Amino acid sequence: MGLALLILIWLISLISTYFFVAKTWWLPAGASAAAAWIDHQFALTFVLMGIIFLAAQLGLGYIVWRYSDRPSAPPVPYSHGNTKLEVAWTTLTAILFIGLTLMGGNVWASQRWEPPEAGAVKVEVTGMQFAWYFRYPGPDGKYGATNPKLIDPSSGGEGAVGLNPSDPASKDDVVTGTMYLPVNREVDLSLRSIDVIHSLFVPSLRFKQDAVPGLDIHMHLKPTVIGDYEIACAELCGLGHYKMHGMVHVVSQEDFDKWLAAREAEKQ
Questions:
Q1: Which residues pair with 218 in a beta bridge?
Q2: Neighbour order of strands in the sheet with 187-193
Q3: Are the C-beta atoms of residues 118 and 52 closer than 8 Å to each other?
Q4: N or C of the chain: less Cβ packing under 10 Å?
Q5: 0.70 exceeded by the pTM?
Q6: Which CATH number fits the domain 121-266, given the four candidates 3.10.350.10, 3.30.70.660, 1.10.10.10, 2.60.40.420?
Q7: How many CB atoms lie within 10 A of CB 30?
Q8: What are the backbone angles phi and psi of residue 49, rounded to the nearest 5°?
Q9: Does 72 score more than 90 pLDDT?
Q10: Residue ranges of domains in the chain
Q11: Per-residue pLDDT tens over the stretch 177-206
C-alpha cells in the first residue's frame, strides 16, 4: 500500500508540474513600462515555488512508503521533533517570502509612492455597481468639484460621478465610459469608488489596484504598446460583478489629442 501511494503521489506531482511548465506564460503580452520587471518577478516566484512544491511532494511520497505499516515493522518510537530542523526551515521560509516581498516592493513603490513624471496625463477612475467611468480634467488641468448628492448612476457621464456644474473647473471636464491613453507617456491615475470596493485590473498593462469608497488613491503607469486592452473588476462587488468590464485604448499622442478635442467639442 505504501508503494502504491508513493507512485500515486509522485505521478500526480510530476504530471501537474509538466502541465504547468508546458504553458508558455500565464499572462497576456505586456504593454507597459513595468511589465518586464513584473513578469520577471512572476517567473522567479513560479520557479522557486515549483522547486519547493516538487521537493515537498516527492519527500511526502518517500515518507509514506518508508514509514508505511508492515507486519514485520517494529513499533514506531514517539518523536519530540527536531528543533534545529524546524528553526532552519522556518528561517529559510521567512527569508524567501520576505525577500520576494522586498523585491516586489520596488516596482510597487515606483507606481504608488514615487511622484509621476512631469506632464503626466491625468485620469480619474470611478468605479460603481457595475460600471467604470473615466474623467479627464480638460485644458485647465484641474478636476472640477464633485458632490455626492449629485451622483445619479442612471444618468451616466457627468451625473454618474457627481460633477458639480457650478464649479468653473468642471466646465471642461470630460467623462467617458472608455479610457483613452497616449502611448509612451506617463499616466497619473486617481481611483475612487461610489459604493463598494472595486478593483481596476488591466492584465496587459500589469496594473491592478483597488478603488475604495472614501479614498482617493493615486497610481501611475506608462503604456508602451498601441492597442486595445480589456479592463476587469478584480473585486467581488455584487451580483453584476461579472459584467463590470471596460476597455483601454492606447493610441498615438496625435490620436489622443484628436479624441480629447472631439469630446471637448461635444460639451459646447
A1: 190
A2: 174-176, 131-136, 121-128, 187-193, 217-221
A3: no
A4: C
A5: yes
A6: 2.60.40.420
A7: 19
A8: -65, -35
A9: no
A10: 2-67+85-112, 121-266
A11: 999 999 999 999 999 999 999 999 999 999
